[in-house]
Each structure stands twice: as structure tokens, then as C-alpha cells.
Model the fold of this input.
Amino acid sequence: MGFDMQFGSPFPALKIREREPRNEGRVATKTRILAATEKLFVIHGFDATSLRAITTEAGVNLAAVNYHFGSKEELFALVLTHRLDSLSLERVRLLDALEAKGFDAEYTVEQLIAAMFLPALQLARNPERGGADFLKFLGRAYADPSPFVRELLADRYAAQDTRFVQAFAKALPELAAQDLSMRLHFMLDAISSTLASEDARKLMAALAATSNDSVEEDAAVLAHLGPFLAGSLRAKVNQPSQQRAIRAVLAFV
Done:
């Protein structure tokens, strides 16, 4: 079943020509193509991954890609949304739960950040829905500069993203809309690069090394990550004293 045939989906339908395989051989071929596309996307990104590279990695011919998916864009749309739909739905579920229960008055921003990133940590432990490379995949998806990827994510997840922007705006009423938008973009860009970095993920693993279970592990990571990112959203910027200090550096140029 293609994504455009899912009933009750909160996401816009994808305009793709995904075909249902008719036998086990075609199922295996389709699975290899999807796995190869995801692997190469994580390494190279959208623009630098050609259909020829995908067919070589998957051990199939170009006709198989055309048969199952149509075009490169249709193939990548399926790969990206297959992973990111689950992430977005779980983020909104957590946001709904927080709004129903009521936020912590002092740490609302930290709770919103946790709601955004906890699903990614959980999916990374689930081999069927995410797997060990999910954080790297997520980092690549949100850092990829391709207009195709940027437009796909912006259009498909607009409603869910708006929910979080509105929640952050309510938690940070002192920030103008444009300022908040800029800070959220900076925050997401920074965390995307972090998630895609092997060294950073090793540091996160070290934070969780003494945890007894997955709940403690997630709490250890988010208790460091949340306050750090929340500080960037709350920080006073462009203050006269800050400008003077920066201009002192510029004087050496």
C-alpha cells in the first residue's frame, strides 16, 4: 500500500507511483532498493546519490527502480517519510499529553525540547521502525541542503511543526515571532549536525552508560541536551555590552 492510500493519515498524500510487489522476488528487490537508498542518503545526501549508485548498491538494474518507484524523487520521498512520519506522530502525541496534563511552570521549554527529541532516541533503539543508524539518518534529513528534501519536509510536516512553534511561542512570550523562528532554526540545525556526528553520538552514549534501563538512559541524555538548548532559546542577544565586546574583536580586522 502506498502512502497516498493510507486512510486517516494526518499527512498530505505523497504523489508517488509505488507498486505493490506481486511475488517474493519483487518484495526482496524492493526491500534492497529501499535499504540501499537509505544507506547512501545517510552517507552522501540527496543530490550526491545517483540512481546508478543505488542500483549498484542494491544489486538491481535501473528498470527495477523505475518499476517499483518511478523516479529518484518518488523513491526518496518514500524512504524519508517512511522513517519521519513515525517520528512526527510520536512528537505530537507527547505534545498532546503535555498540554493535557499541564507544563512545568519553570521548565516548559525543556519539556518541549524533550518531546521533540525523545521519539528520536526511542526509534533509534527499535530496529524495525528506526534502528541504530536512525539518529544519523535524522541528522542528514534535516541538514540536507537539497531543495527537494527541504520542500518535502516543510510541506509534509507543516501542521506538526506549527504546533511546536506555537507551544514555544507561548512558553517564550518575550521573543518576537521572527526572533523565535530564527532561534528554533539555529537550534534544529545545530542538533541535526550533532545527530549526524559519530563523535557526538559517542558522547551521548557515554552519558547513558551508567543507566539501568532505557528510561534512565533517555533521561540522562535529555537532562544534558534540554537545558543546553533551552539556554540558547532564552539567551539575551544583541545587548549593548555584547555589541561592544564583539566590536572590540572586529577592531583587529
